[in-house]
Design brief:
Length: 120
């Protein structure tokens, strides 16, 4: 039979593992290092090329913002529950990081939107 402490540890670990898995969902290494994205960047010359890249980065920003919102809600769900303060901190950190990632993708999108205007 599990002790109260063991149950507490397990109940804290399961949501942490689930949130960690969801944080990486859609952000695995192959997508982040997509060779077609590199090809798009290398070959971007026309306004349409840069507009496509801008849309791509806007999409990534949207996904990052969805993850940010998810982790913000998870942090609230942890609330002040005894024994799971680490879960709340974890989700707050991820929410902040996903927000920063989204801002960076938006900045990249703006760069390509400007390049689309300037391209011949």
């Amino acid at each position: 039979m599990l002790t109260r402490r063991q149950l507490l540890v397990i109940s804290a670990a399961v949501p942490l593992l689930a949130s960690r898995a969801s944080a990486h969902e859609g952000h695995d290494a192959p997508e982040m290092n997509d060779p077609s994205e590199a090809t798009m960047l290398e070959n971007a010359k026309t306004p349409a090329d840069h507009a496509a890249l801008a849309a791509h980065y806007r999409e990534r920003a949207g996904k990052a913002r969805a993850e940010q919102a998810h982790h913000r809600l998870m942090a609230q769900a942890y609330g002040g529950k005894q024994g799971v303060v680490a879960g709340r901190s974890h989700c707050r950190r991820l929410s902040k990081q996903f927000g920063e990632v989204a801002d960076e993708y938006d900045a990249l999108a703006r760069v390509h939107e400007e390049a689309a205007k300037a391209a011949p």
